[in-house]
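Hi R.,

Here's the chain you asked about this morning:
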Amino acid sequence: MKKLLTLLAVIILGVLSLTIVRTWLHQADSQDQLPEQSAAATAELDSAQLDIEAISQRLSEAIQIKTISYSREHKPGPEFNEFISWLKLNYAEVFAQLELTVLNDYTLLLRWEGQSTNSPVLLSAHYDVVPVIPGTAKLWQQPPFSGHVDSTHIWGRGALDDKSAVIALLEATSLMLKQGISPKRTVYLAFTHDEEIGSEKGSKAIAEYLQTNNIKLAWSLDEGSFVLSDMIDGMPMPVASINVAEKGYLNIELSVQGEGGHSSVPPKQTAIGVLSQAVSRVQNAPMEGGLEGVSAEMFDVLSRYMPFRQRFFFANRWLFNSALEKQMSEISFANAMLRTTTAPTMISGGVKENVLPIYTSANINFRLHPRDSVENVVDHVEKVIDDPRVKIQSKEAQEASPVASTQSEGFKLLANASRENFGDVIVTPSITVGGTDSKYYQLVAKDSFRFNPMVIGKEDISGFHGNNERISIENMRLAVLFYARLIQSLEP
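And the predicted structure, written out as tokens:
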């Protein structure tokens, strides 16, 4: 017995020693976040020529033009033509020197001829915006389409999503043209008009145009995540989250047909009761998740900067993986990285308080992790509900995107430009949980990335599709320099 206890103690001591050593080794190398030296010689960009006051004013004017996407059935208003005319007037040199193709009247594709014949890259942003929720304009500190500029910020709908990127891309291009700097590889600049309603006329048309002309992109860059400041607990510096994949989406409608009648003589279960039970079953049986693929790579990077206690668990996933995944599943952000999410979003049924409903329906929205497909999510829902009284119908669906390589040229250039531009940042791959124009660019690009070169904090999040959307003046300066540095860094 004594020998057994001694052996057990040795094993425990050995495991403890191993976990501590692994934790000690699981930390960031200070060299990891330094910018790499590019092999391509680049002309020196004179950033002193950047007139940030003028840039802020131009973004302000862009915000004031109400390019609102209401719905897929709603046609673009005259403001969309006004915005295009405004762009051509304010960036006359860009439109004079780059080749312009207009698709479906409102989406602009500019081609900037490079010095080599290697595969081009595409940099994209959208200029349509979501409406301001009726009755909420009074909650804004500044009127939502005023484009108000104060000493630190530009305010208004589109300041973050996504007119700031449109303006930053054009400002970077204009700055380079004025200084006689041209890209070593052909660059396409895409400005789409319907991203907020599905991109059916915008980025889809761009992808079809490129396919028709046999143009294959080396990689594309579109909106996505940002440089996150104080957004992830335990990080000692901002995190440049370069998204290498995009979740898919699926809407499933559940419906139940009832017999109707008076509420005084109800059946054992009403149509609403059957439907509620089905919704509850689906919500309480989430899709399987796991810390693998992009999610594992992201947390492997982030955890190296965490305090010892948190780092201990990530460094020893072989021992704590199950407990770690369970704990992460309780945190909304982390859970979205681990699995396909389930969100009941709409329910309807009944016309009067004393009338049994004949028909009830509910919508459940799924955001598909790259490991899942539309088909297996539908199969999962059918098995979980297991009730012939519930009709299950798949509505709008989009598979999750392919995962871009973090070892690719595109990712390395984006990481390098981030480190040069933002200084001490942690660069990590991640997943875009919403939808972007990249769902079509991925059809013509070897790799598609999603990243906005701007620093945001917790106070900025509510501005996305919400109230008090704004962007800092400093962010506009950083975004212009990022895009210029990125274009300059392209290898011939």
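Residues 2-25 form the longest helix (24 residues).

Let me know if you need anything else.
M.
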